[in-house]
Design goal:
The protein is mainly beta. The protein contains no helices and 11 strands.
Length: 117
């Protein structure tokens, strides 16, 4: 059974940085994209970034492009989300995710990010 565990959330001032981690276990992930989503207070869950486990290809939401960087450590089966120049609107619960066609959808428990203005 695939398990995703996020960590690294916390409180940071606007303009500051945080690094989130997502450790995956329970299988192999060579064919997967690992995704980060977030859900702010009163908002829908939204896509943040993704990385291809094998090729390292990345994709970002426009709202975080040039501020956030996603990377992976294959040996540790961990994906990182480096978040720089944080804004109050980045405050959310951040979730790690793997989607597998056609219907499998794995989520972690989330890690909370607070950004003070």
């Amino acid at each position: 059974q695939v398990r995703l565990v996020e960590s690294g959330g916390g409180l940071v001032q606007a303009g500051g940085s945080l690094r989130l981690s997502c450790t995956a276990s329970g299988g192999t992930f060579d064919s997967d994209n690992i995704n980060w989503y977030r859900q702010g207070p009163g908002k829908e869950r939204e896509f943040v970034a993704s990385v291809s486990w094998s090729a390292g290809t990345t994709d970002y939401a426009d709202s975080v492009k040039d501020r956030f960087t996603i990377s992976r450590d294959n040996a540790r089966t961990t994906v990182y989300l480096q978040m720089n120049r944080l804004k109050p609107e980045d405050a959310a619960i951040y979730y790690c995710n793997i989607k597998r066609f056609p219907r499998l959808n794995y989520w972690g428990q989330g890690t909370q990010v607070f950004v003070s203005s």
